[in-house]
Each structure stands twice: as C-alpha cells, then as structure tokens.
Here is the input.
Amino acid sequence: MIKIEKLRKNFKDNEVLKSISLEIEKGEVISIIGPSGSGKTTLLRCLNLLEIPTSGILGVGDVQVDFRGKAPSKQQKRSIQKFSGMVFQHFHLFPHLAVLENIIEAPMVVQKRKKAEVVEEAEILLQKVGLIEHKDHYPDQLSGGQKQRAAIARMLSLKPEVLLFDEPTSALDPELVGEVLTVIKELSEEGQTMIIVTHEMGFARDVSDRVIFIADGFIVEQGKPSELFTAPKEERTKQFLQKVLVR
Ligand code: ADP
Ligand code: MG
Here is the structure.
C-alpha cells in the first residue's frame, strides 16, 4: 500500500535521505529505529508530504509521484495526505480547544462532515483511548500521556489508512509511557497498518512485524524483530543495539 523507490531528500547541501527503497503491506506494523539525526522523522514526513522529497518515487495507495524535478500536483498531495495520519513527539494539540473539540475540528472543517455524527464518533474514540471523562478539558489540564492519547484519537478521527508515529513517547515522563504504548499496541492488534519511529526497543520487538534500522540516511538493515534484535547482521546495527537498552 506504500512503495518508495530511491527516495532522496536534501536540505540544501545536506543529503538527509540517501536513496531509500521500501515497501509496506496493508496490516504491517513497522518500527523504525536508529541514531538521532539519521533521517527517521524526515522519512515519515516525506511519506505524507510534510516534506517534499528531492527525487525518487513515492506510491501511496493508488497515487504514484515521481519527484524528479517536479512537485506533486495539488490533487496528488491531497490524496497522499489523506492516506496517512501522523502523531508527533510533542502532541501538537490545539491549545485553545478542549479535547473533544480538538478531535472534531478536522472532520468538520476538512471533511465537512455533520457535527452530530462527528461528535458521536469522537466520543467512541475517546472511550477507546480512555479519555472520555476528560473530553471537556483543555490540553494544559492534561498529563503528557493524556495529551498524546488525545492526539492519537484526533489522528484516528480522519480514518487514515496508515498511522505514522514519530517517537510518540519520547517527550513523556517514564511512568506515562506505558499508557500510550498500550493504546498503540491495541491499534496494531486491530490490524491497523502503522509505522512507528521509536526508541522503545522492547515495544518495537513486541509489536512489530518488521524493524528497520536507519543510519545516516540509509536503511542499514531490516528484518523480523526476533532476527534483528537477537542476531543483527550489520556491524552498524550491532553497535547501535549495544548502546540502547533492549528491555
Ligand atoms: P531523526 O528523526 O532521525 O533524529 P531528522 O530526520 O529529524 O532525524 O533529521 C535528519 C537531518 O536532517 C538532521 O541533520 C537535521 O538537522 C536535518 N533536518 C531535518 N529537518 C530539517 C529542516 N527542515 N531543514 C534543514 N535541515 C533539516
Ligand atoms: Mg526524529
């Protein structure tokens, strides 16, 4: 459902993604791991065109864009962006809107759907992430874990085909990490296709069908978690895994 071929992304002279090729099937749960600055966030942002790749081919659903020297059309951009939903490290909730309002905003404004119907769905999503009793609270009245669960509900309200998580727990106090990972794990068990950039190695091992190790803008190695975490083939992967705690 997603296919990228020889994708490159430069920021001026800095080549951040150096020919990434990758295919993701419907229902797959992929974890992306790798050192800070290796291009993980940039890769996720290229998948939903928050960044425009410098060259290469991106196929998302039935839309395919070849970036050689040209920008995607408005229509291509719209369908690619509709296809995926992103959850950010720092939540990005609207601070002036209560939790429920945060969730209904995009379905009402972007999708022009009826308020009653959207509210009903939002309440179901809030039940699911365990926040229904906080629906009228504002983001600054919530803990980090609650904010991230609200951000997940908001992302789900647009019913994306693929969920993109960019280090969803790295801004959280340690005791709040578990509640967010539990929600993500439940989504994976429902068969949601997802790509998760994470430093939580135990979680990656637990939920992923495939783990991708990225360093310096390359895919160094990828494989099943049981293989990659226990018997990495590449020296780079071994070094990285020795430094991070796999618990
Ligand atoms: P990671 O998520 O793996 O830590 P990033 O994708 O955020 O890595 O960043 C990879 C490299 O791209 C870094 O060197 C970073 O400074 C650079 N970079 C990321 N976003 C931008 C940007 N908008 N403008 C210029 N450089 C950027
Ligand atoms: Mg990042």
